[in-house]
Amino acid sequence: MKMVGSPGCSPAGFLLPLLLLEVSTWYSAVSGFSVKGPVEPIMVLLGANATLPCQLSPEQSAADMHIRWYRTQFSPAVFVYQNGQEQGGEQMLEYHGRTELVRDSINRGGVALLIQHVRASDHGQYQCHFKDGQSSQEAIVELHVIGLGSVPHVHMMGPEDGGIRVLCSSDGWFPKPKVQWNDMLGVNLQSLSESQTQDEDGLFHVEASLVVMDSSLGNVTCSIQNPLSGQEKVSCIFLPEPFFPKMDPWKAALAGTVPVLMLLLIGISYTGWREHQAKEKEVKKKKRELNERDQMKNEKEMAQKATEKLKAELEQRKALYLEDWKKALLYPGSICIALFQTGGRNTSSVPM
Ligand SMILES: *[C@@H]1O[C@H](CO)[C@@H](O)[C@H](O)[C@H]1NC(C)=O
Ligand SMILES: *[C@@H]1O[C@H](CO)[C@@H](O)[C@H](O)[C@H]1NC(C)=O
Predict the structure, then answer these.
(1) Angle, helix 286-330 to helix 249-280, in steps of 10 degrees
(2) Domains in the chain, please, with CATH?
């Protein structure tokens, strides 16, 4: 058996890649240029102007070339430049009146597409295509649109499952932001639910809820972060202890009252037993017995007074609790309006 027919070993199999290499080098030599775009994505805040640069290499004039910017190969153009001027006919409607070609250095092969008032839909990939006679080259430019939403609004919804349900909401984010709850020590708290909806401009509205079980957490923060720029907006809410159903004031008071009543009962029966014993003993202890009875009476009276005081306090705390809830429902946002930026995280780096 001979291996003559095997493509991997035939002389043609070795020649083919070499041939392709030759062809592409030759092609590049004919076009005489290549195009470079920025290595990193261009980040622009929503509503600002974006400048997407492309550069010919080696430097040469592009003034007489056909330059075409587009999103995907088969879509209409974002911008077309030909015969030394803008050609409007082929342009996508959504870029109409919002684009221009920055030509300050076109004689050295540098151009930039300026997109005014950037929208969420402008986010993504662009290609600049340069054509000179029969040769053409292109490069990719990535545009990242950054939408920083509103400062989150955090408020109490009401008691739930032995805790307090808290809601955090914010508008105007792009792309889809990250939402995080933290306690005062920075420990991550798990959202009960989270929803993100897009409005007609493509911007995200965020709603996240949390059930706080532990009254000792103090202030709880809600942070919403842009995943591309790392910029975030933070709000906090203070959850006062009386708002926690677990810390129900009348339950807590009851927990205090029951042991007191138990002690009283034990005390009474113990004294009864002692009285009985005392009867069986000699009269010589009568004087002391009388003294003890007096003391017992005093103790009973004091205990009764303490119980009445507890009852009154209970009623008062119950009334206060209800009043607090009424206030919270009347002024939901007024409990904690402190805002801060957490340190350590990236909060700059986007051109404003
Ligand atoms: C955006 O570009 C337009 C046109 O060049 C210019 O008039 C406008 O001032 C720019 N806006 C900003 C915010 O730079
Ligand atoms: C919660 O935040 C407020 C400011 O809104 C601050 O005065 C208070 O000390 C914080 N509470 C705790 C327990 O740290």
Answers:
(1) 170
(2) 3-146 (2.60.40.10), 153-243 (2.60.40.10)
Structure token pair of residue 51: 């400048």
Q: Please, which residues bridge with residue 80 across strands? A: 68
| Residue matched to tokens 């965020």 | 206
Q: Which pLDDT does position 329 carry in this prediction?
A: 47
pLDDT in tens, 72-92: 888 899 999 999 999 988 899
Q: Coil, strand or helix: which one is 280?
A: helix
Pocket test for ligand 1, best of 116, 118, 119, 352 (most atoms within 8 A of CB): 116
Mean pLDDT across the chain, nearest whole number? Answer: 79
CA end-to-end distance (rounded Å), the chain: 73
Degrees to nearest 5, angle at CA 150 with 149 and 152: 110
Distance CA 166, CA 207 (A): 11
Q: Please name the residue whose Cα sits nearest to atom 12 of ligand 2.
A: 218
Q: What distance in angstroms lies between residue 219's CA and the mean position of ligand 2's atoms?
A: 6
pLDDT tens figures, 98-143: 999 999 999 999 999 999 999 999 999 999 999 999 999 999 999 9
- Do 79 and 115 contact (CB within 8 A), yes or no? no
Percent of the chain with pLDDT over 90: 51
Q: Of the candidates 75, 237, 85, which has an alpha carbon nearest to the alpha carbon of residue 157? A: 237
Percentages helix, strand, coil for the chain (3-state, rounded to 5) are 35, 35, 35
Residue 240 pLDDT grade (very low, low, confident, very high; cuts 50, 70, 90): confident
Beta bridge partners of 327: none
Distances (CA, A) of 115 to 112, 118, 144, 145: 10, 6, 13, 12
236: pLDDT strictly greater than 80: yes
Q: pTM surpassing 0.70?
A: no
Span from the CA of 140 to the centroid of ligand 2 (angstroms): 50
Dihedral in degrees, nearest 10, Cα atoms 87, 88, 91, 96: 140
DSSP conformational letter for 87: -
